[in-house]
Sequence to fold (429 residues):
Amino acid sequence: MPAATQPSLFANHNFTLLFGGSTISAIGDQFTLVATPWLVLKLTGDPAALGLVLAAMALPRAAFMLIGGAVVDRMSPRRVLLGARAVNALLVSLLAVLVLAGAIGMGAVYALALGIGLSTAFAYPAGSAILPQLIPPQQLQPANALFMGMRQLSMIVGPAVAGLLISVGAHDGHGNGMADAGGLGLAFGIDAASFLFSLGSLMLIRIHSDHHPKVPVGSVLANVASGIRNIWADLPLRAFILYAAVVSVFVGGPIQVGLPVLADTRLDLGAASLGILMTANGGGMLLGSVLSGVATRLVRGRLGLMVLGIDSLAGLALATLALVHSTFAGAVLLAGTGMLAGIAQVAIISWIQRRVAPEMMGRTMSVLMFTFMGLGPLSAAVAGSLLKMVSLATLFTAAGLMLSAIALACMTSPALRSVGAARPEAASG
Fold:
């Protein structure tokens, strides 16, 4: 049968290069994800400052994510991704040097956060669009599963090692007298070095659009508008993206700010606790991605109801974080929520990939990413300010119960309930 003669994904040289470079870079990214909030808290001790840094990354990412998706659909995603990651490597390298030299201040952190946010606005849609040009359509599903599994494994390995690395430098103050400076600088340096592997693999890869560039039709802004119109015309897709945006605003920000503050103020291992919490969440997501296929088959097209049910349970688990005072208890809860998120994430992305035309994929994925990576950190700025007025327990309780309430209320929406059902007829044009 065709499946028996289908070659291994790793027999494809371009795929092997992309997967290898992305794996090393993804592990490196986890070091910065742990080190950045810890750096801000050590410099300021202020959760509101952490929220502002996350917002500084989110603002340019939110403003340019849709433009990034349109640029990717007009150009070679490999070249866009290569340029964006080169900028990221430069900025993270500069951050490492400043921390190790004792010359880091919040002004530099805000400026570098803005630059990183801008570059990722182009990197994320480019990364999602490059794979269909490397492999045949029948291999997209296993390839996406492989990349998702790799990202979850990086979330298991990276945060725990990063947290331990920062903890090793806990008494190693540099020129600014900041605790953890040595470990923080090394963490950023490891991420900067990991980008070199990704850049090297991208320079060796060749894809169709490198040699057969698309003829631009209309302006970039017109392309963005056509992508949004395409999503708006698809009722279940529109309903899900609007739902994801609401969840991201009300829940994503409080969690992004709340977890570092939880580790810093309540837990027993400091930065290592934050790494363990993030690792537990990544491990849960890896398990969830494995279970997603089974769960999707069991619900038989009722994907919308499955996602809403999962979110209602995840909300209760997040509210329970208000009671956590030990790293172990927090890790157990985050592993559970990670598993639920992994099941939903793989199922939803696979549904979107089957539903959307390839020529609209960059713009569609950029809108989906905008809801999580653009809106979530913006709400983190608000959450950080709220922690000056309410307790951490109140923040977690409100965020978790809000997620459960939103998910349960949306179960009455016919459009969301139809997510996952077969499309009556393909859209034309």
Observations:
- Residues 425-429 have pLDDT under 50 and may be disordered.
